[in-house]
Amino acid sequence: MSLQIELEHYRQTLIVRLQGELDHHSADTVKTRMEEAVMRGNVNHIIMSFKELSFMDSSGLGVILGRYKQITARGGKMVVCDLNPAVYRLLEMSGLFKILSIQDNERKALQSLEVAL
């Protein structure tokens, strides 16, 4: 299965929706598209929605950590939301929850960043 990437700009937040499998085959594409969107747009925060993500391996963790470093260097925040149990466990075991905010859904993620409707 491949990965579909949807990027949406909402105010100063980049919302990234991933559908499919985030693995070593797709990680570079996600990394590049997110980096370009952050550099090109007026982006202060990133929300990554994993609602439709069926699988993620350590390459996905690298993508998340790299974009976290990129956005926090700009003074921004990163939030992940809509995690399925397998992805939640991977993020928990990796220790990323110590630095990332987790929310139930995109609306709560936007509210946590104080950029909600």
Automatic annotation (TrEMBL):
Gene3D superfamilies: STAS domain. Keywords: Phosphoprotein, Sporulation. One of its GO terms (molecular function) is antisigma factor binding. It comes from the Bacteria. CDD domains: STAS_anti-anti-sigma_factors (cd07043). Pfam families: STAS. GO terms for biological process: sporulation resulting in formation of a cellular spore. Residues 3-117 form the STAS domain. InterPro entries: Anti-sigma_ant, Anti-sigma_F_ant, STAS_dom, STAS_dom_sf. Belongs to the anti-sigma-factor antagonist family. In the phosphorylated form it could act as an anti-anti-sigma factor that counteracts SpoIIAB and thus releases sigma f from inhibition. This is Anti-sigma F factor antagonist.
